Give the backbone structure.
Amino acid sequence: MRNLDSPQSFSAQRSWIPALFTLTLSLFVSRPTAAELPSTEQTKVILVVGAPGEAEFGSNFVRQASSWQKACTTNCKVTTIGLETNQFSDYDQLKKSLEAEPPEGAAALWLVLIGHGTFDGKEARFNLRGPDVSATELAQWLKPFHRPLAVIDTSSSSAPFLNKLSATNRVIITATRSGNEQNLTRFGQYLAETLDNPEADLDKDGSISLLESFLMASRKTAEFYKAEGRLATEHALLDDNGDAMGTPADWFRGLRALKKPKENAAVDGLLAQQFCLKPAITDQNLTAQEVARRNALERAVLLHREKKEKMPEEAYYTELEKLLLALAKSYETSSNAVSKPTGAK
């Protein structure tokens, strides 16, 4: 590796960076398949289908749940609440399901809320058959969790859930930007349709991330209101930096947020880009711990990029080199031998 403190030009020094990225991303570890992994290694999805209100809404909610269940067939464990009768209320089933989940670990937990919501000016609630669950209650139930967590509330008046649930190592998505957007939402339907739609793979890496689903579903929602000639009554938000502020889809260019809610805020989207129900082929043989380690380093590289204009050039590339080398080593030092990149001799 070249010494970045040498007097040679930085343009020459930078030439190794794309090559290192190519090497890093082309390596993968020979590991058990997803089906062979223990349950603690698998992504867990809890689908909650709320009270339908009217029959036409109920059938739409069931279709959304079916799309999620189909997307989870090969790589996830799924628990569905709200479609069958049970001795416990849906409220109790949700609470018990969360209590049964390990709060620590590398495998992600997704909580998906499909249905209606309400907001009385103080508290937002997701409508269940029987007692509703409030944002405050859900925040309390999720407080012990430090494992990767995604909460997707596709209901009306869902924005207060983002404010209550936002925290480190979490992706929070809501269909609305305020509790006062109380009309029926379309965002959840379009989000469910992205899960197996190749068009949603915006970076063409072979997997559809939660960020990509959020961006496409937001675009489809906006197109619906424009085609209908109606004023949009929902504006989805994504928060994954823990600042409880959220970022709308139109602040992104490609997969990168170009605007921030405040000057010194961290960008949203970096964590959401790493939540995938169906990982890329090169990730399917990695353990949850290996993926978590790799993802943390990739986020560090992207966050470091935000500092480029604020750091001396030499210091910037010196630190970048350290991060990229660590990223490459995260593959090479895995517990199994690394396969040769395609075309290697």
Observations:
- Residues 313-332 form the longest helix (20 residues).
